[in-house]
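ugh ok fine here u go
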Amino acid sequence: MKQSPVAWWEQLDFLAPDVRADLGRLMNCLDRGLPLSTTAVRSGEPAGWSGLVSKGPWERLVVSEWALAQSYPEEFVRRADEGELGFWDLAKESHQAARSLWVWVDAGPEQLGGCRVVQLAILFWLQKKCLDSGGQFYWGVVQEPERGFDKLAADELHTFLKARSVDPPRRPPERMDSLETWCVGGLSWGSQIPRDVRQISLEQIGTNLVELRAFGRRLELELPASKQAVRLLRSPMVWELPAREKPVTPVQKGSLAFSACAQKLLIVSNRSVTTIPLPSSLNEPPGRARVYPVPWEGRVIAVSLVRRAIIVVLESDGHWMVRRLNPSQGGEGECYRVEAPKIGEQPLGHCFKSNDDWAVWIADSLYWLIDEPLFFTRVTGGCALGDSTILVDETGRVLNSTGRAISKLDHEQPAKAFLARSYEHGVQGLGYCVATHVQDSWWRIHQGKGYAELQALGNVVGLYADYKRGPLLIVDTNGWLMLQGPITRESLDLGEPVESCVVHPNGRIAYRTRSGNFGCYDLEHSAVIWRGEV
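structure:
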């Protein structure tokens, strides 16, 4: 009988239910198969043996391993080289203390595929153990040792999913303070890991089977079916719901938008919304397009796709109506209706929940919280991230999703603004870098405590925060896109000129070419991850 993963659900509540269940089963397997207590002993007098480990002094080598050395010396050398020998681990008398870990994971080529799914389960499992003991949990990717995280929650999960490297793992940094250091990666990494660092080795031995080696033990972990395993690494926080509507022809013309997680492209018209699941790597095909008809009269002025809910805001007869295209079983399609003035032709806006009220941001124009009393302010740009949306108003104030000012750009009254999330290059105390339009073709890029001015070579359509090069403008020059910074000019190879495009804060660009094709360019990987027709 399969154990229920309910014990792990508290820390996985931001994941979709099916993903939560799959990860919970893997974590239960780890809990049963690995001897890891929630507390750690400190130094004291020896008190026997606590178990087997894969590294240790030769005088603690298990007797059977010495017998192997005499009978099969070549096999003994191989096991020693790959860290497969068993050593007795010395126990010590002392009081129990909270366990605090720093876990390094290998994001290199050897761990692609099923190993990455198991890595994710191991991180959640170790975090749960540390927090239960009253300790602390830290983790990082060994290919980027300068970055570390003190938890694994929704934002950090996005970082883990995008952390893929072509570089092999390196020697982990020295142990920090009193933290135990662990390494989770491939077998070949063992030769670079110090003896006092614990290692969990992973190797994919079948389509849905990963072998785990740790503490002198071997576990075979069965992964979910291939499609579900891919979902764990592509869109674990997006709820999947089969379309109930009758098939409708996808629209070739319409406004482009991203889902909140940037895993789906939306093509929006007044008659329908088409969703296209985007691949997470260059080698994956896109998912099947789904078309959701808009059965009500009116003009679609805003849209959102958060988890499984597709929400549209329609303008009709002096009213704004918030409606859900795919209501839950027994639910209502209309969520809210309010009197509102007519607005002219504007770019497609965004809608989302903010403190249980509906909020609407019409790009480059206005921001409206649909509650009593109505809140209205003019904005010049921002980042559409659901209830984490950040906006800049016409006086240079930076607003959160409730309309409260959280920062102020000095000496700024921007006509237009773009934001990009960046902890390395963001405005001090904000976590975002900001580009504001000064006059004519001149733009000002704010980061840290200062700013830099540059003259854009075309129409600015977005801002991207490159980890190494800093914030860069995304510029449309007669249909060709390029990145432009104070010392950087780089053209994006899209194959043909674009007719329209939309930029997500995480660095993805969706576009429609002049020939009618669609595509998605990933700035982090500097490549087109999808190109085709709907």
